[in-house]
Every structure is written in C-alpha cells, then in structure tokens.
Amino acid sequence: MTLPRRLVLRAAGAAALTFAPFGGGQVVRAATPDPLAPWDAAPAAAAHPDPRVRALAWAVLAPNPHNRQPWIAELPAAMPEIVVLRCDLDRRLPVTDPFDRQITIGLGAFAELFRLAAAETGRAATLVPFPEGEPAPRLDARPVALLRLGAPGSAVPDPLFTHAGRRRSTKRPFDMDRPVPDAAFATLADAVAAPVRFGGTGAPMQVAALREIAWRAWQVEAGDPAAHGESVALMRLGRAAVATSPDGISVWGPGLEEAIAAGQVTRDSMLPGGAGYRVMIERYTAMLAATPAYLWLTTDGNDRAAQLAAGRDWLRVNLAATALGLALHPVSQALQEFDAMRGPYREIHAALAPGGGTVQMLGRLGYAAPVPPTPRWPVESRMRVV
Ligand SMILES: Cc1cc2nc3c(=O)[nH]c(=O)nc-3n(C[C@H](O)[C@H](O)[C@H](O)COP(=O)(O)O)c2cc1C
Q: CATH says 5-167+374-385 is which class?
C-alpha cells in the first residue's frame, strides 16, 4: 500500500512533535509533571471522541527497549480511520541495537496494544507493515506501519486486554521456591502465532545453562564502555529528571531521591569503579540468579515484518503471563548485535535456535511481588494531526 505523497513528505519533520487539540471532547491531559499519569489517562481516554486517540492512549503503555518510547503516531485529518506509525529516529539505541531490531520489536508491541484497545471497543484494527518498503540496515523516515480502524462492531474484545494496565517488565529477583507449572508454558505458547515461535523451560539444567549465558552477556554489556555508556546517558536521576524526560532508564523512588540529592548517585558513579556501578552489579547478580524459568521467541527470518510480529507476541505473552500471576523480564544482552557480544549471541542461538533463525526475545519468568509501572510520555506528546 502506498501512502499519499502528502504524508510521505511530512515524515521529514517527524521530530518536531506538537500537540494538536482534538476539540470539544478532549479528555487526554496536556503534558503533566506526573510521569505515571499516562497509566490513568489510558482508561480515562475512553471518553475521547476520536477512536484512534482512545486506542493510542493504551498503546503508549507498551513495553519497549530502555523505555525510549520511539513511537510517533500521525493522525491524517482526512482519513479518520488511519494512524501512520513512524519511528522517532532520535530515540534509537545505536550501540546496543545497531540494526534497530529491538526498537522495531517495541513498535510491534505498540501496534498490538493499539489493536487490542480498539478491539475492546468493538473495532478491528488491521496492520500494514512497512507500507513503503522495509528499511535496512537501519530504520528510516518511512512509516513503520499503517493502522486502519474498522467500523464499530468489526471486532470482539480479546481477554488479554484486561491485563494491559497491570502488565510490567519485572526487574526483580523471582521466588525460587515457586517453579513455573508446565501448564503455564502451554498457556503462554497459545498467545503466540506465526511467524513467531514460542519456547520456554523450567527444567533446572537448561535454566542453569541459559542463566550462565545471560549473566555473561550482561557482564559483556556492563563492561563495554560504549554499550554501558549508552545506558548511563539515558538514566534519569531522581523524580524531577524523570518528570522532565519520562523515557529512558528512570532511577527514582524511595531511598534513591535522598542519595541523588546528596550527590551519591551520579552518572559518574554508574561507570566502572564507581559506587553506583558496584550496586548495579550486586543487584543484577542477585536478580539474574533468582530465575526459575525462561521463555523466548524466535523467527525463521529476521525481516522487519518478523520483528514487528515478535513485538506483537512479546506484548501478548507478557499479558498472558500477567493473567497467570507470573512476572516476565526481558534479558536482551545476549541477543544484541554489537561486536563485543558475538560470543554470547552465537551461544544463545545455538541453544535456542539450533536449526537457524533469530532469537528475537528472551525473558526471565517466575513469581514476584508486584512492581510499580514505569514512566511514560503523555499520549498527546507522541501524536500529531497531519
Ligand atoms: C525489545 C525489548 C528489549 C528489552 N530488553 C530489556 C533488557 O535487556 N533488560 C531489561 O531490564 N528490560 C528490557 N526490556 C524491558 C523494557 O525496559 C521495558 O519494557 C520498559 O522499561 C518499559 O517498562 P514496562 O515494560 O514495565 O512498561 C526490553 C523491552 C523490549 C520491548
């Protein structure tokens, strides 16, 4: 499908986002200092007159790498059933995600959450991936997808959507006394569809082998100045910084605010040799060790459409896990395509895709106490009328 030329030309200005008011029924608030407000704004947007905005208010809650929220939603005024999804090219992770594979997965999760939210109100949303062609080796200004809403009554709700407000990436140690039941893997596998394949294990030997690769890969990233530096640059230290830029890695909350205000937690302290770096290593050593099970998604090919599909199914598996009371935490280091990661990348592929293909996602799975949501930019800051 080819986009009208007018939309194509506008892509060049994609970075200059402005909020476009939506008239009388406006319920989505303007930029707010509460970085968690978008989690309340999503259900509140049910009163918005534009069905695209109603679904987008949920879509911005999708999981995505380093919480960069790389989505831009264009709403063509002349085509009220269409959303053009683009990538904000400034929100990519060029060191750890050199081919924008993970960023594309996040955009796939966004599109699927849009579809589920639309279905909840009875509207189908069909997705046309990369309507102007698949960019390679990196994304470019062309659209990532066209999302087209159907008429009222064109879809029925998907039970997975019920869990969208409680879905999390749970970055915590899991309960090692509670194994994941075999039946849970079957339920999670049901959330996945072609071209994506599901894999999962709670078998102690296999879990131990995967944990060893994941932990070594994590150390490679933490020890690589460029890769670790990419994360450190995206840290938002303290509530004020998180409120100003509610994307990236938010370091905030009880106990931390005081340490940040006292200058004990700084960007420098997060570099090798610093106190923050040591705390991070201790935290992750304990966290990655406390992993009773893993799940993973693979695809035979690794084209952009496959990456979007992997994002779709990561979101679906994350919701299905939430429904079962299970916590899920992506651990992507071994899947990353930068040079220093070659060894762990080969090993994880030999273990999980021995017949060929790409491991698109790997996650820790288990039981954990609930964690709070992560910050988001308000939906209106990520969309514009064209
Ligand atoms: C493609 C992809 C890769 C990710 N990789 C990691 C990872 O390696 N480590 C991690 O802690 N979280 C990872 N995440 C989770 C994100 O950090 C998380 O989705 C984001 O911070 C938003 O938080 P939420 O999912 O709880 O809403 C990844 C998410 C996606 C979609």
A: alpha beta
The pLDDT tens digits for 128-144 are 999 999 999 999 999 99
* C-alpha 285 – ligand 1 centre gap (Å): 18
Q: Give this prediction's pTM.
A: 0.93
Which atom belonging to ligand 1 lies closest to the Cα atom of 373?
A: 26
Q: Where are the domains of the chain?
A: 5-167+374-385
Residue 339 has pLDDT above 70, yes or no: yes
pLDDT at 33: 78
Q: Which of 7-16, 161-170, 283-292, 336-345 has the lowest mean pLDDT?
A: 7-16
Please report which helix (H) or strand (E) contains residue 298, including its range: strand 293-299
Query: Model confidence over 66-103: pLDDT tens digits?
Result: 999 999 999 999 999 999 999 999 999 999 999 999 99
What is the Cα–Cα distance from 85 to 101, expressed in whole angstroms? 16
Runs of H (alpha helix) within the chain: 5-10, 37-44, 51-59, 101-120, 182-189, 204-223, 225-233, 239-244, 256-261, 275-289, 304-323, 342-352
Bond into 70 cis (ω within 30): no
Is there a contact between 61 and 38 (Cβ–Cβ < 8 Å)? yes
- CB of 334 closer than 6 A to ligand 1? no
Q: How do residues 1-51 score in pLDDT, each as one tens digit?
A: 444 433 333 333 333 333 343 333 333 444 447 999 999 999 999 999 999
362, β-bridge pairs: 296
Ligand 1 pocket mutation, candidates 64, 252, 288, 296, criterion most atoms within 8 A of CB: 64
Q: Is 292 in the pocket of ligand 1 (CB under 6 A)?
A: no
Verify whether ligand 1 is closer than 6 Å to residue 168 (CB atom).
Answer: yes
State in Å: Cα 128 to ligand 1 middle. Answer: 25
Nearest-atom number in ligand 1 for the CA of 64 is 31
pLDDT, greater one: 2 or 227:
227
CA of 61 to the centre of ligand 1 (A): 12
| Ligand 1 lined by 211 (C-beta under 6 Å) | no
**Whether the CB of 96 sits within 6 Å of ligand 1:** no
Measured CA to CA, the distance from residue 48 to residue 21 in angstroms comes to: 11
Query: What is the CB neighbour count within 10 angstroms for residue 136?
Result: 11
- Could you tell me if the CB of 105 is within 6 A of ligand 1? yes
